[in-house]
TrEMBL record, chain A:
Name used for this protein in its record: Sarcosine oxidase subunit gamma
Lineage, top ranks: Bacteria, Pseudomonadati, Pseudomonadota, Alphaproteobacteria, Hyphomicrobiales
Domain of life assignment: Bacteria
Automatic annotation (TrEMBL), chain B:
Family the entry assigns: Belongs to the GcvT family.
Organism from which the protein derives: Methylorubrum zatmanii
Protein name: Sarcosine oxidase subunit alpha family protein
Keyword Signal: no
Alphabetical list of NCBIfam families matching this protein: soxA
UniProt keywords, alphabetically: Oxidoreductase
Pfam family, any one: GCV_T
Record-annotated GCVT N-terminal domain positions: 622-894
InterPro entries: 2Fe-2S-bd_N (IPR042204), FAD/NAD-bd_sf (IPR036188), GcvT/YgfZ/DmdA (IPR028896), GcvT/YgfZ_C (IPR029043), GcvT_C (IPR013977), GCVT_N (IPR006222), Sarcosine_oxidase_asu (IPR006277), SoxA_A3 (IPR041117)
Residue ranges of every copy of the SoxA A3 domain listed in the record: 522-606
């Protein structure tokens, strides 16, 4: 059987589409545009991976992550970050690895062979960073978790839901600054909630 | 004087007497900040700090509405959220809001209010003839009057009653405002901002505990704002203002004013609604109208206060008859005289406070009637010194006045009657603690004989009741109990809190002997104002046997509607107790349920309106589909392209036929990202898959995929999909769109609970990968132009059911599976979701030379029916693998979930309906899913039912409607004819049973 000549499609077509593309609009929105209460930073191009420890291999996992990657493994409900690179607890024996670049964890699967299952989730989640003077108030509209500094501070993480949409979020600093991860297909609906909830404070999208 | 009073009794004061009833000074209103508003179109003026009710009274407006059933003139009874009468329509157009209590509506510039339930006007209401028909409209009239003929109920009786009896009108247009929701957490929640609540909040807040004080008013202070009292030498209102200022200075204390705590729920959670923008005409840009709060508190202090009780006497609903506490509120807080001549009808010492307050505000008190046999002499002396006629041991039997009170008929202790002119009557019959909230968790209040009132019974866990809400009516009792409970609650939460000694208060006397109804009323004596339930209606219910409180409520409507009987329940109960010779506690109360006061449905909905009613999930090719005119369908949360009409195509079927024909003849691409994708890794991954799947996988080599069927524990089919072996201990499984989450949950249950000893790691990768089916004879040619050079996807290197890691677009990792749902040569290409949009465009471009089409879920469905593949309509939770024709593939030599249970006799009954195909005997006849199968000539009956048509489609390949369905012993009956009977859509089609595989039964197209 004769095959037609293969003509690869032009490379310009292969542009990655950000999870917030066509959804979030850069700029100031809502009330008090001159002094927004909320700053939303769209996080694109990050590397994300789910790490699930193999049966009985958590100690090895900790050792390898520490030695080879300089990462420590956080306790339940916590994060362990070195700058923008770190692990977020997701479930017993499971963590979300976060890296500023998509290639950040390319070496992980091989290094953790037999010790943990690693699955790339870089495109599976949409990430947004929430900061600004009203950040805590805004998030409290969505989550039923107590965000008071006495109960939830920097380095804490939770898996919960906002507006009936599953989210994972963690606090980065005392500002407070939060990172929220939401499943990619829900990004549009999640953003709809975020705009609704942030409008009264004024928000800036960057 | 009488003449003047009569003039003021007109429903609307003339403009020349603007705020004629405003006192010279005093009150918490800002007299210089006047606000213009309208009532029934008439322009009036009030002050900042007024409610609509106080502003109406300041303008001499006493007639505010018409009653529910009899259209009797009604005025303002209370000064709070318990108001049963003064319900108005607030605002206009899309913001029109019915049944707003004028006593709760904060006045703002430009406020528009209208009376409701009147026609043609408030003063001349044609339907007040209902009052003449009172015998017809008595309790139970719904049940008795319109019994026959029943066919007239919907057409005549109900519309007639709805016009005659009712409340306000909802807006016709969608609500333009936004509603918000929020969560709050605290150590101590204080419910109520009166003296008890403020004391509790101070005691708890000073310890550093996180405190939330919820208060429904727009000024915090409760009755301290309404009474002329002293605390520690300063006025109660000044003390309250200082307390609020201190609370505001404490960083961990939050005061939620204009917020009603409407419900108490399990585990220390509470519902509250904050009226963020109800006090302005239009919310500020982006500001919510209302905010629904869910508050979680470790401890709660219930300081919700008490509600005053009306007396039950003739004409007690006439505008001008008010609760004494409300009269004092209007006098002291709003600087309004509810009347010039205010008579007092009391059964308690505190009613007498009204005398001094009226005098201080410049009014006169023509009479004080106390129902008790004796009253403290100092009270009597004070009233007589002011010129009041004092009647002890008497009562008010009736009232006079057309649209407002002009006189009362007083019966003294010797049964002689006299008429006393007045334009306002203040009634004081004791107070009922607000026991609603503490009763929400199915708890019942208990009767306290000492105060003649129900008080909280066993309290919800973590809740303390204080002040008037606990039956402690004295100001000193409120301050003391509040501070103590606040300190205890904070201590419970681990804070070092102590109650400081309560400041001294001015002396007060609390004597009280209630009179549940007057002995011989003149005219209708109402127990429930809002529902027009008179004492005689309770008597009627008693006579007709509806004596239990629940029956009394339903038969008479006592305690129903928007006020839920806040001012009326005890009146009704006490009359029933008297009639049945029981005590009030043995008659009991009906159950209090949330919400405490009505909450707009919009507040509950919040953001979830319109398209945000629930979340929508978008597929990676969505942008392209939108650009190219795709028509979408909601499947679960997903919005999927259903089909892609081209110019000139006139209906969906034409489009779908074209898409199917193109796929079968050339090539098509379909977004199947919605399938669940589960990554399975670990040493024991294969063992795990063997146990969860009913067909064998031990022989599946790396680089191959296989159809998978999963059973439930009970032997029925859970779902089907494919499992591909990517590496020795690495698999990826697909699940159907509808069951994606359920299958993941099932696998996690199996892993965590059934076989924790297996080393298996699961991860959902549904969102990570965009996945596209590329199907049709030119599918390979198309893919060759998308997949990077160097990957051999020829038929030999990459045969049917092969899978491999490939790259696209110059090194982007991708996965290729040679699997087919359409029956054609087909692949599924998975790329990281960020490249989903690019990959789709690349495929469409690559397929151009071959005439590629995008196809949607409709064409997908047509082709799977042509191939007889079971989907959601067949895998419906009631079918076994054998029913679906999958029995042959089930493993014989391994154990798996559902293996034993699927062998139950009923599941292996040879008579069970099984999957086959159907085609109409008459060419062109339309088939309908849902039709039931009957033997030819059999009369339709349950017994004759042989099965059901589960899916149908117009098959472009066969140029005929086809169907698949489940029919008794189907596979044995190919060639037999039956009826497909569908009485719902009036269809009865003769069909022939055939193989469910209509296209390419030898599966030659798959493997080329």
């Amino acid at each position: 059987m004769s095959e037609p000549a293969t003509t690869p499609t032009p490379a310009f077509l292969w542009r990655p589409r950000g999870a917030w593309e066509g959804i979030a609009k850069i700029g100031g929105h809502g009330a008090s545009a001159d002094a927004p209460g909320i700053r939303l930073t769209l996080r694109e191009g990050q590397g994300l991976a789910t790490i699930v420890a193999a049966d009985g291999r958590e100690a090895d996992l900790r050792a390898i992550l520490a030695e080879r990657f300089g990462l420590s493994v956080p306790e339940a409900g916590a994060t362990a970050f070195d700058g923008e690179r770190g692990l977020v607890w997701s479930a017993p024996g499971q963590w979300l690895a976060v890296s500023p670049t998509r290639q950040g964890f390319d070496a992980l699967p091989a290094a953790l062979q037999g010790v943990a299952a690693v699955t790339d989730q870089s495109d599976g989640r949409a990430l947004v960073r929430v900061s600004g003077p009203k950040a805590r108030t805004l998030l409290a509209k969505g989550v039923a978790i107590d965000l008071h500094p006495r109960a939830f501070g920097p380095g804490r993480a939770a898996v919960t839901s906002i507006a009936h949409i599953g989210v994972q979020f963690w606090q980065r600093d005392a500002g407070p600054t939060y990172d929220i991860a939401v499943a990619r297909s829900f990004a549009g609906s999640f953003w709809g909630w975020l705009e609704h909830a942030a409008a009264e404070f004024g928000y800036e999208v960057a | 004087m009488t003449t003047l009073a009569l003039q003021r009794a007109e429903p609307l004061g003339s403009a020349s007497t603007a705020q004629a009833f405003r006192t010279a000074q005093g009150g918490l209103i800002e007299r210089r900040r006047t606000l213009d508003f309208t009532f029934d179109g008439k322009r009036l003026t009030g002050c900042h700090g007024d409610t609509l009710a106080s502003a109406l009274l300041a303008n001499g407006v006493r007639l505010v509405g018409r009653s529910f059933k009899y259209h009797r003139p009604r005025g303002i009874l209370t000064a709070g959220s318990e108001e049963p009468n003064a319900l108005v329509e607030l605002r206009s157009g899309a913001r029109r809001e019915p049944n707003t209590r004028a006593t709760m509506a904060e006045l703002y510039e430009g406020l528009e209010a209208a009376s409701q339930n009147r026609w043609p006007s408030l003063a001349v209401d044609a339907l007040s003839v209902n009052a003449l028909l009172a015998p017809v409209f008595a309790a139970g009239f719904y049940y008795k009057t319109f019994m026959w003929p029943a066919s007239l109920w919907e057409k005549l009786y109900e519309p007639m009653i709805r016009r005659a009896a009712g409340l306000g009108r909802a807006a016709d247009a969608p609500d333009p405002d936004i509603y918000d929701r929020a969560h709050a957490h605290c150590d101590v929640l204080v419910i109520g901002g009166g003296p008890a609540g403020l004391s509790a909040a101070l005691a708890a807040g000073r310890s550093g505990a996180r405190v939330i004080l919820v208060d429904e008013d727009f000024v915090t202070g409760g009755r301290l704002l309404a009474e002329r009292r002293e605390i520690g030498g300063e006025s109660g209102a000044a003390w309250a203002a200082r307390a609020v200022a201190e609370l505001q200075s404490l960083p961990e204390v939050r005061i939620l004013s204009r917020t009603t705590l409407f419900g108490v729920y399990d585990h220390g959670s509470y519902g509250a609604v904050e009226r963020v923008s109800d006090h302005v005409a239009v919310p500020a840009a982006h500001a919510p109208r209302q905010r629904l709060w869910r508050i979680v508190a470790k401890r709660a202090v219930l300081a919700a206060g008490a509600l005053e009780r009306p007396h039950v006497f003739g004409g007690n609903d006439r505008p001008g008859v008010m609760l004494a506490g409300a009269v004092r509120t209007y006098l002291n807080r709003y600087g309004v005289l509810p009347g010039r001549r205010v008579a007092v009808f009391t059964s308690s010492d505190d009613g007498w406070r009204t005398v001094a307050d009226v005098l201080a505000a410049g009014g006169t008190v023509p009479a004080v009637i106390d129902t008790r046999a004796s009253v403290p002499p100092q009270l009597r002396r004070m009233a007589e010194a002011a010129g009041a006629r004092v009647v002890v041991g008497g009562y008010v039997a009736g009232t006079k006045g057309h649209l407002g009170l002009t006189a009362i008929q007083v019966v003294d202790g010797y049964d002689s009657t006299e008429t006393i002119a007045c334009d306002c009557l203040a009634m004081a019959n004791g107070w009922n603690p607000v026991v609603h909230l503490d009763s929400h968790l199915s708890r019942r209040p208990v009767w306290n004989e000492a105060i003649h009132a129900f008080v909280p019974g066993p309290l919800p866990s973590g809740m303390r009741a204080v002040g008037a809400a606990a039956g402690l009516f004295s100001l000193s009792g409120c301050l003391e109990s509040g501070a103590r409970a606040g300190a205890e609650a904070a201590t419970d939460c681990g804070f070092a809190a102590s109650a400081e000694p309560a400041p001294a208060t001015d002396p007060e006397s609390e004597g009280h002997i209630p009179l549940w109804r007057v002995p011989r009323p003149k005219g209708k004596a109402f127990a429930d104002f809002q529902n027009d339930v008179a004492a005689t209606d309770v008597e009627l219910a008693h006579r007709e046997g509806f004596r239990a409180v629940e029956l009394l409520k339903r038969y008479t409507t006592l305690g129903m509607a928007t006020d839920q009987g806040k001012t009326s329940n005890l009146a009704g109960l006490s009359i029933m107790a008297e009639l049945t010779g029981q005590s009030i506690p043995s008659v009991g109360t009906t159950v209090f349920r949330p919400p405490f006061t009505p909450v707009a449905i919009g507040a509950f909905a919040g953001h979830h309106r319109g398209k945000d009613f629930r979340a929508t999930r978008y597929v990676p090719s969505h942008a392209w589909a939108e650009e190219n005119g795709g028509v979408f369908v909601e499947t679960g949360l997903w919005l999927r392209p259903a089909y892609f009409p081209k110019a000139g195509e006139t209906d969906w079927l034409e489009t779908v036929v074209r898409e199917v024909e193109t796929v079968r003849a050339r090539v098509g691409v379909c977004d199947v990202t919605t399938l669940g994708k589960i990554d399975i890794q670990g040493r024991d991954a294969l063992a795990f898959i063997e146990r969860v799947c009913a067909n064998p996988f031990a022989t599946l080599p790396v680089g191959k995929a296989r159809y998978a069927v999963l059973l439930r524990e009970d032997g029925f089919v859970l779902d089907d999909g494919t499992i591909a072996r990517l590496a020795e201990t690495h698999y990826v499984m697909t699940a159907s769109t509808a069951n994606a989450a359920k299958v993941m949950q099932h696998l996690e249950f199996c892993r965590q609970w059934l076989w924790p000893e297996l080393d298996v790691q699961l991860a959902s990768v549904s969102e990570q990968w965009a996945q596209y089916a590329v199907a049709g004879p030119r599918a390979r040619d198309t893919l060759r132009r998308v997949i990077d050079p160097g990957f051999d996807i020829g038929n030999e290197a990459f045969p049917f059911l092969a899978c491999a890691d490939v790259t696209v677009g110059g090194g982007i990792p991708a996965r290729l599976f040679r699997i087919s749902f359409s029956g054609e040569l087909a692949y599924e290409l998975a790329v990281p979701a960020a490249y989903g949009d690019a990959a789709w465009r690349a495929l469409m471009q690559a397929g151009l030379p071959y005439g590629i089409t995008a196809y949607g879920s409709e064409a997908l469905s047509v082709m799977r029916i042509e191939k007889g593949h079971a989907a959601g309509a067949e895998i419906n939770g009631q079918t076994t693998a054998r029913d679906l024709g999958l029995g042959g593939m089930l493993a014989k030599k391994k154990d798996y979930v559902g293996r034993l249970m699927k062998e139950r006799p009923a599941l292996t009954d040879p008579d069970r309906p099984m999957l086959v195909g159907f085609r109409p005997v008459e060419p062109g006849a339309r088939l309908r899913a849902g039709a039931h199968f009957l033997a030819l000539g059999a009369a339709p009956s349950l017994e004759a039912d042989e099965g059901v048509m589960t899916s149908v489609a117009y098959s472009p390949s066969l140029k005929s409607w086809i169907g698949i369905g489940l029919i008794r012993r189907g596979p044995e009956r190919h060639g037999e004819r039956v009826r497909a009977y569908d009485p719902v859509r009036d269809a009865d089609v003769e069909v022939e049973i055939c193989s469910p595989v209509f296209v390419d039964p030898k599966e030659e197209k798959l493997r080329v």
